[in-house]
Amino acid sequence: MAETVRSARAGRPTLAVVGATGAVGTVLLQILSHRADVWGEIRLIASPRSAGRKLAVRGEEVEVTALTEEALDGVDIALFDVPDEVAAEWAPRAAALGAVVVDNSRVFRMAADVPLVVPEVNPHAVRTRPRGIVANPRCTTLSMIVALGALHAEFGLRELVVSSYQAVSEAGRAGVETLRRQLSLVAGTELGTSPGDLRRAVGDGTGPFPEPVALNVVPWTGTLQDDGWSSEETALRDESRKILGLPRLPVAVTCVRVPVVTAHALTVHARFESEVTVDKAREILATAPGVVLFDNPAAGEFPTPADVVGTDPTWVGRVRRALDDPTALELFVCGDNLRKGAALNTAQIAELVAAAPS
Amino acid sequence: MAETVRSARAGRPTLAVVGATGAVGTVLLQILSHRADVWGEIRLIASPRSAGRKLAVRGEEVEVTALTEEALDGVDIALFDVPDEVAAEWAPRAAALGAVVVDNSRVFRMAADVPLVVPEVNPHAVRTRPRGIVANPRCTTLSMIVALGALHAEFGLRELVVSSYQAVSEAGRAGVETLRRQLSLVAGTELGTSPGDLRRAVGDGTGPFPEPVALNVVPWTGTLQDDGWSSEETALRDESRKILGLPRLPVAVTCVRVPVVTAHALTVHARFESEVTVDKAREILATAPGVVLFDNPAAGEFPTPADVVGTDPTWVGRVRRALDDPTALELFVCGDNLRKGAALNTAQIAELVAAAPS
């Protein structure tokens, strides 16, 4: 390491990436390498079976260490992207050792004493973290909430009806490999044209999904909750309410998996306190930090996952006022579920914490 | 032809299939071959370049003739599935020659003096046809309207918010070939993981779609209308209102193309006059003609295009009461866009006309 780099990093906070070898961890290391460098040491931590591997971050090779209390010693901020049961055990242990934990599991998101933070929407919330833990919202919420937060600040949100088009990389490498395997089965065939043929071709190869995803859409993501709801649907409602500070906001959601590798899309019907105009909505979206307005259907411009994958912002297109309700807007929103939907928001929260310690 | 068949058909109405060689025409001939046979002669008509081809219907080879007034002479009911400009010219000519025309183009659907008919929902409307023309709704409308009609009859519909997941075969053979070609490009590659890579790989090969559809979802179907709306979206609203007899029903729609060969899916948020229960809704859907309730997420049961392709009914799953509104239901609806979405409904209308001449 060059001496100038070493001295520039002196006195800066130590960051740990816990879960550095996973799909989100991999993107997180890329993001940390490209954003303004505010960190001293960056420590890479993973499960014992990944210990000893070397990964690149900020142009340097860093050896991965196993998750232990020693590995967390002296860490100021720890970014966790690990299975729920690992987060449930280790996030509090890391906090007890003095780190502020930014956690991307499901464990803490709805805990009353854990803030759920989107830096563009509720940055103030990061300061009140009695357990030393800040939660990162799920990718589906993050794929739409920056745009909705900007519109809410101007118009006052009253109701949401949301349908999702969710990418397979939300289910990690297994999700992507499952879609790739199914695509190689269907390419060049007549599959998908008679009932059950896809299911027979795929056999037991549905991977983390309940049905074939190639040439199909599957109206199920998450786990079964009461009354037929999926965990993804109820969580999208609960997280949106918490982030927007609207605990009674009506939110209707149906979540659907689509054969896209990366980048979630959502249709949103958003009703506001009073009459809205498309011109004002477009002005808000065009200037909101973290949002790109891409909305000129006459020129063929509207966001799709293929445009959006690998980029940071929330992309918004198809902005229309509801035909029968002057207080409602229709939107098509699109964002990279691994970047803003996971790794980027985690990194942004860490930067907020570093800039404004509690 | 066996003598018994010939004599059984004597005195029955003569049916013409105009557009017999297209994607919908092909399905229509299969459907006519499998439904109860109420027809005398079935005449197959297409463009001059298809004249002389032989196609199978009811187990017989029938020669295709070119669309002329002679070909329509003596026809009682003519099913039209042809380009809009052909329908605009020839449907009135066929009607003037004495045929009742059942037309699947966009030309007549919203005309005040042309009924728009779904036999399970508004069969009575078929009797009032001052121009001798009955219109068939578009596939997107037909993929949901039978289920919604049944719920409306019980609960009284007050508002719809709909998002679509539309199959490529809606764009005919060119749509299917485009998806197949794109799939053969992406299978076994890393395409779909960096911005613009799909677009570069596909080049000009987007066929009838504005963007790549393989590994993507595209929030655009139809043509551009006022204020950023697509023709598919405004038509889904207008046709639903006309079929349900609710001319002021608020309907919010966003239409999205997905990489599925055949079978449209839609998410529906439906608000009714007063409180609804899931038990009652399920009872209605389980017994409604033309509807299959397939809704047991605990057993992995919900409809997907792969289940539904090649079948006749409207499949409904994910039936939930809105979390924040006891008067609203959430549904996931799925139907074959070539069968009930086009050919089957046309055949059903023809049977209605044959059973009850005006």
Automatic annotation (TrEMBL), chains A, B:
Q: Which residues cross the membrane?
A: none
Q: Which InterPro entries match?
A: Asp_semialdehyde_DH (IPR012080), Asp_semialdehyde_DH_beta (IPR005986), NAD(P)-bd_dom_sf (IPR036291), Semialdehyde_DH_NAD-bd (IPR000534), Semialdhyde_DH_dimer_dom (IPR012280)
The record lists substrate as bound by 166, 257
Catalysis performed (reactions):
L-aspartate 4-semialdehyde + phosphate + NADP(+) = 4-phospho-L-aspartate + NADPH + H(+)
One Pfam family hit: Semialdhyde_dh
Q: Which domain of life is it from?
A: Bacteria
Question: Which keywords, in A-to-Z order, does the entry hold?
Answer: Amino-acid biosynthesis, Diaminopimelate biosynthesis, Lysine biosynthesis, Methionine biosynthesis, NADP, Oxidoreductase, Threonine biosynthesis
Q: Which residues form the Semialdehyde dehydrogenase NAD-binding domain?
A: 14-129
The EC number on file is 1.2.1.11
What role does it play? Answer: Catalyzes the NADPH-dependent formation of L-aspartate-semialdehyde (L-ASA) by the reductive dephosphorylation of L-aspartyl-4-phosphate.
- Read off the PANTHER family from this record: ASPARTATE-SEMIALDEHYDE DEHYDROGENASE, DEHYDROGENASE, PUTATIVE-RELATED
What family does this chain come from, according to its entry?
Belongs to the aspartate-semialdehyde dehydrogenase family.
Q: How does it assemble?
A: Homodimer.
According to UniProt, the name of this protein is Aspartate-semialdehyde dehydrogenase
In which organism is this protein found? Streptomyces glaucus
**Top-down, what is the taxonomic lineage of the species of origin?**
Bacteria, Bacillati, Actinomycetota, Actinomycetes, Kitasatosporales
